[in-house]
Backbone:
């Protein structure tokens, strides 16, 4: 599952991408990202953006393999907006890493 959210003229953000835990590691995430890119192009968008946590190592690798480039960091977003600390693979999720790709 994923959602494409228009954010400004010519730009769409890929949000809420999710793969069921029992199906992770099977290439489904990459197929979803590829499908989202194709749909964004088909709908005439010029840029697709995505954001993920600094501790989401697998997601960061996936997006970069799909030719997204890091464009910015929203420092302490997860600390400011989530009451509980989030840890992934022993790394505290503090910052939102923003990535984009021209279509």
Residues:
């Amino acid at each position: 599952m994923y959602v494409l959210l228009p954010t400004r003229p010519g730009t769409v953000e890929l949000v809420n991408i999710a793969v069921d835990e029992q199906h992770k590691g099977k290439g489904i995430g990459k197929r979803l990202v590829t499908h989202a890119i194709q749909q964004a192009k088909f709908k005439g968008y010029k840029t697709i953006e995505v954001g993920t946590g600094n501790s989401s190592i697998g997601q960061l690798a996936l997006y970069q393999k799909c030719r997204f480039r890091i464009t910015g960091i929203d420092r302490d977003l997860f600390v400011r907006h989530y009451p509980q600390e989030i840890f992934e693979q022993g790394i505290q999720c503090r910052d939102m890493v923003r990535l984009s790709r021209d279509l």
Q: What stands out?
A: The mean pLDDT is 96. The CA atoms of residues 36 and 42 lie 10 Å apart. The helical segments are 28-42, 57-65, 77-81. The domain at 3-102 is CATH 3.40.630.30 (Aminopeptidase).
